[in-house]
Design goal:
alpha+beta; four-stranded antiparallel β-sheet; four-stranded mixed β-sheet; 10 strands; 20% strand
């Protein structure tokens, strides 16, 4: 034997494999307000909010994530899923493993996903599912697999919308209440203050948007994408299948 050598310890892989085994041993909980509240109480009792989690659909793992506050992240996912077509939210469940500060630092999300996807290749990771707005630059590109399979519910009800309000007030309410992206260019004061009469207009997202676009000056447009609705001045070339509403 030589007098020297190299010892390779794959720290991230070892930690990640241990965490994934811990997740596998947990039972599933339904992703709803009740279970999220129970998780919140558990986080407070344990003094820990950071952790990793797996979302399941029909008891099949679909998304692995890491969050500084698991309860908050699961709320974001739940809000997104209720606004999607072709998915039964009552069949969404999850597992969550809270981590202390040292373990949270050691838990590498990319490594966890890489290892987990070996046995679960149909994850939504990297396929358009996530809590964030993909951004204006993604509007004109082809949607990811998740958005193709589960586009937004255009008919989603926007509650507590009065018959008479300004265009700016309507857009702020839609942005706050819709469970998917509602993004618009900053509105000039003259447009934002335009009075709308919504008497008889269904309180569905698409109907409200189409009615609002009538009050825009020429040169503005709205687009209904697979992951949300956007409103901008000027023209854009969108992928086939995107519904564009001209002012």
């Amino acid at each position: 034997m030589p007098a020297w050598g190299v010892y390779n310890f794959h720290f991230l892989d070892t930690v990640s494999e241990q965490l994934l085994r811990g997740l596998d041993q947990l039972e599933l909980a339904v992703l709803d307000d009740g279970c999220i509240s129970e998780l919140h109480r558990y986080q407070i009792a344990q003094g820990a909010s950071k952790g990793i989690y797996v979302l399941y659909y029909r008891e099949s793992p679909k998304y692995l994530g890491k969050a500084d506050n698991v309860k908050v992240r699961l709320e974001q996912h739940f809000k997104k899923l209720v606004g999607r077509q072709n998915i039964d939210v009552s069949m969404i469940s999850f597992k969550s493993l809270l981590l202390d500060q040292s373990m949270s630092t050691a838990a590498n999300e990319d490594t966890l996903i890489s290892l987990y996807s070996r046995n679960h290749p149909r994850l939504w990771n990297g396929k358009g599912f996530g809590p964030k707005d993909p951004g204006r630059n993604r509007d004109t590109t082809e949607p990811g697999e998740f958005d193709r399979l589960f586009p937004i519910r255009r008919e989603f009800l926007v509650d507590n919308i009065q018959d008479s309000l300004t265009l700016g007030q309507l857009f702020k309410a839609m942005k706050r209440r819709l469970p998917y992206v509602f993004r618009y260019q900053q509105l000039p004061a003259a447009i934002s203050s335009t009075e709308l009469d919504l008497a008889g207009v269904p309180r569905q997202a698409e109907a409200l948007l189409r009615n609002a676009m009538i009050s825009f000056p020429e040169g503005w447009h709205a687009a209904i994408l697979s992951y949300g609705m956007v409103v901008y001045e000027g023209t854009k070339v969108y992928p086939p299948g995107v519904d564009v509403i001209q002012s």
